[in-house]
Each structure stands twice: as C-alpha cells, then as structure tokens.
Amino acid sequence: MQEHVSFREAIELVQQTGWYLTERARYHEAAALLEYAYQRSLHEQGEKHLDTARDASTLATLYSNQGKYAEAEPLYVRSLAIREQQLGTIHPNIASSLNNLAMLYDTQGKYAEAEPLLARALIIYEKILGRNHHRTQTFRANYSSLLKDMGQQAEAEQLETEP
Fold first, then answer.
1. Domains of the chain
2. What is the mean pLDDT of each run of 10 residues along the chain (163 residues)?
3. Which of 10, 28, 112, 120 is the most buried (most CB within 10 A)?
C-alpha cells in the first residue's frame, strides 16, 4: 500500500514532535524541529497563515520555557496579529494568544503589559464558553493571580468570588 503525505502534513508532524519534546523539557532537541517548522510555514504558507501563527506560538513557548524572553515576545506578538487578522477579535485562539503573551510579561514582572491582555482573554472566553467552563476558570485564575502580583488584592478577590 502506497501512502501519500503532503509537505504540509510533514511539517505538522515536525511541529507536533517539537511540541512533544518541549513539553518534556527536551529543549535542545525541540529547538531544531520547531525552528524548521516555523521557517517552512513562513516560506510555504506565508506570513499571514494560521499555520504560521501556530508555529510561531509553539516556537515562542519553547523560547519562553528556556528563558529567552526577547526571542519569544515577537513570535507571540506575530501569532496574535495573524490570528486577529484571520479569525476576528472573538475566538478561542485569540484568547490563547493573549494569555500566552500575558504570561510571558507576567514572568518578567511586566504586569502593566500583561493585565489588559488577560482581561481581554477572560472576556473572550466568557463570551464563547461561558463563565463556568474550565478554560474560562483557568483564565480567571491567571488574571486573579496577576492582580494579586500587582497589589490589587480587592480586585482579585472580587474576581474570585464572582458567580
């Protein structure tokens, strides 16, 4: 039996393998795969394709996990911009991109940059999934934690006690 695998499917497999290795903290092995997948997406799919956004975000996560924040930030920003252009302003992938960038800023103590991103992500998830969905609750917890880091204890407690 002869199977045909498209080039895009092969790149997706490379990307998924790189993500698998990232999740297991095998960063050196993951880096080559994720950098390759991202470059191929840029070349084959173009700068505005959702695959490019996905591959940019995955590579940014690797860099963030390695503490390479300066390398991660522009990739997260690019991923968010592509997704906003392709998906509009209210979509789960937009919320995920906002959360990723906000968590990068939070890790660096850039709370003022992170706060509006998490607030917007939470609004998106509440509109799409509802207030009680587990993903919405995760975003709510992230936002509450950030507010506490910013010294806004009362706001964090109000967010945690909202029905």
1. 7-87 (1.25.40.10), 89-163 (1.25.40)
2. 69 92 94 95 92 96 97 98 95 94 96 96 94 90 92 89 73
3. 120
